[in-house]
User: Which sequence fits this backbone?
């Protein structure tokens, strides 16, 4: 009795600013992850067959940016600046991009199991890219042909899966997954056909390695388009983050909250396809990052996109930087395509999620 | 806020699902929409809350063309409580209610103390303030419905649309929800399936059958034995309950015979 009374008198005023536990957690995560990315980049650049001290790494970077001289060898400079640095940065950009694409696709399909890999979007991008690699499609776009091809392939696959999953204007999650599987197989078989009918030696091996997803041989030029798309994409998505919240409740709810649902969804489709295409063009198909990252992030910070988007971006970057380190060191000097490791981690995660989230399918 | 629906129709495959609907909701009134399943209640509401585009007719809110309004403007004037559908994402109660602020926000706008006060007030009005950090998915049907009403309140609009707000709820929660709505004293249009409850709470009723309005007026004018037989195909006796002064219906299904 007494306890209850004293509780009532000490209870905080109900008009106070809300006790936002999840928002506080999100701020903490961002505060931890952002510097951790810098640390991860440094460590990832250091790790490799040739040892280079962390100080030297940043001296070389500083020197390359400002033109200053230092006491490092030309070989060290080349390894850091031309080989490892762009690769590590690209791993970060690709990981961040894939995580953000996952968030968008899950919102558009209202299905927490959506992922560009699972829904066949990656296969579409791969077909587009392979057409460029082997048949020389979109040659008019020069060095961007691969990106254009991958983007158009992704867009085609997304539109196809989407229209197959619609019934009477409603999205059916089960149909979506099935449509994704079908589209994925269809595109993959066309890709295989194109690859096998090409008689130039080594083509099949080159395409296979690219399709498994890998970041070896990354050059600075590879970074431009994905990084640009990621920056523009995240700005647009953050501007739409409230609308995304309403969208995952339902089309009708979003409409009654003043959102033009069809227009928003069309734009999100284009943004997701563009990001997927531009990323896959440089990295190949790296699966399950878009599924895992947003999920883990949502468990910690809740479903609000204003938190899910930035935290997923950072988490995806850190994750792929480290997966790529594993990919190139585990059986060094041999490299494993990074996509094999993400799938090895991601597939069991997906199965666990399916069991946990029974009504998502 | 006054709603005027004039000669509205919506068709699919050259078949009119609703046709020539005329309906008005006066400022401050609680108007009920009756009719059996498939009579067009939900279709009419969808036209009003702009999920469907009518093929004929006009809908105005205080004289302004609702169908031509930018979506955000419409959402500031009209809040809608839909039938609850399961969601796969985990929002807290206060996050759900905060979504009601969406039509008042531009891109990159932050939540202000005012927004949170509006959310707290809305939750207090539906007696759900103690649940604000709970996960929406873990609530019971009645609690979810109350949270959705709170979200509509946080929208701060002057007109409320409810699509069968008491569906699948225990009688206690049905009464509770309708009490809450009644006490809000905002202009309300609600589709209801329970005739007794409609007669108990509404100022005015419209009865729909096969996509047309077949009766309208005060509850005792609309809820009559003839109308119930014509529209629902059920025999019933309608009387005024001396204790409540409201219309009360007794049904006589084929397996139960009236002995008097």
Assistant:
């Amino acid at each position: 009795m007494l306890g209850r009374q004293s509780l009532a008198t000490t209870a905080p005023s109900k008009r106070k600013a809300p006790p936002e536990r999840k928002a506080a957690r999100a701020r903490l995560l961002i505060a931890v992850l952002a510097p951790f990315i810098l640390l991860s980049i440094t460590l990832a650049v250091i790790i490799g067959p040739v040892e280079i001290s962390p100080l030297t790494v940043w001296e070389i970077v500083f020197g390359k940016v400002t033109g200053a001289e230092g006491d490092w060898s030309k070989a060290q400079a080349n390894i850091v600046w031309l080989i490892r640095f762009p690769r590590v940065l690209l791993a970060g950009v690709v990981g961040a991009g894939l995580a953000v694409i996952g968030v968008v696709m899950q919102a558009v399909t209202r299905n927490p199991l959506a992922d560009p890999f699972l829904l066949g979007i990656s296969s579409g991008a791969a077909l587009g890219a392979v057409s460029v690699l082997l048949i020389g499609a979109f040659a008019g776009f020069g060095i961007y042909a691969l990106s254009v091809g991958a983007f158009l392939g992704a867009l085609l696959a997304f539109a196809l899966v989407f229209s197959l999953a619609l019934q009477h204007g409603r999205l059916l999650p089960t149909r979506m997954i099935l449509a994704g599987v079908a589209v994925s197989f269809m595109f993959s078989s066309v890709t295989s056909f194109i690859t096998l009918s090409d008689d130039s030696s080594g083509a099949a091996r080159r395409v296979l390695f690219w399709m498994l997803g890998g970041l070896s041989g990354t050059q600075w030029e590879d970074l431009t388009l994905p990084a640009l798309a990621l920056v523009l994409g995240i700005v647009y998505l953050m501007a739409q983050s409230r609308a995304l919240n309403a969208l995952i409740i339902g089309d009708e709810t979003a409409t009654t909250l003043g959102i033009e649902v069809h227009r928003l969804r069309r734009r999100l489709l284009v943004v997701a396809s563009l990001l997927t295409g531009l990323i896959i063009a440089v990295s190949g198909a790296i699966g399950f990052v878009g599924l895992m990252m947003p999920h883990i992030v949502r468990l910690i910070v809740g479903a609000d996109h204003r938190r899910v988007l930035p935290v997923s971006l950072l988490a995806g970057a850190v994750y792929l930087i480290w997966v790529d380190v594993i990919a190139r060191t585990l059986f060094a000097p041999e490299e494993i395509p990074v996509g094999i490791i993400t799938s090895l981690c991601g597939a069991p995660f997906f199965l666990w999620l399916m069991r946990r989230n029974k009504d998502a399918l | 806020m006054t709603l005027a629906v004039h000669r509205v129709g919506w068709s699919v495959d050259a078949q009119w699902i609703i046709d020539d609907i005329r309906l008005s909701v006066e400022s401050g009134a609680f108007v009920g929409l009756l009719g059996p399943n498939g009579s067009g209640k939900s279709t009419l509401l969808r036209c009003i809350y702009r999920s469907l585009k009518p093929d004929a007719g006009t809908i105005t809110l205080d004289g302004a063309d609702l169908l031509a309004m930018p979506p955000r403007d419409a959402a500031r004037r009209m809040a809608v409580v839909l039938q609850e559908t399961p969601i796969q994402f985990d929002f807290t109660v206060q996050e759900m209610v905060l979504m009601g602020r969406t039509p008042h926000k531009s891109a990159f706008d932050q939540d202000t103390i005012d927004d949170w006060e509006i959310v707290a007030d809305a939750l207090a009005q539906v007696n759900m303030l103690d649940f604000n950090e709970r996960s929406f998915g873990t609530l019971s049907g009645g609690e979810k419905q109350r949270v959705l009403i709170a979200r509509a309140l946080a929208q701060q609009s002057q007109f409320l649309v409810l699509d069968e707000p008491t569906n699948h709820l225990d009688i206690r929660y049905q009464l509770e929800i309708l009490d809450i709505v009644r006490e809000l004293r905002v202009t309300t249009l609600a589709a209801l399936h329970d005739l007794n409850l409609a007669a108990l709470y509404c100022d005015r009723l419209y009865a729909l059958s096969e996509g047309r309005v077949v009766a309208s007026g005060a509850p005792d004018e609309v809820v009559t034995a003839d109308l119930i037989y014509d529209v629902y195909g059920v025999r019933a006796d309608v009387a005024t309950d001396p204790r409540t002064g409201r219309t009360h219906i007794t049904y006589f299904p084929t397996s139960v015979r009236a002995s008097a």
Summary: Chain A has one domain: 54-64+74-360.
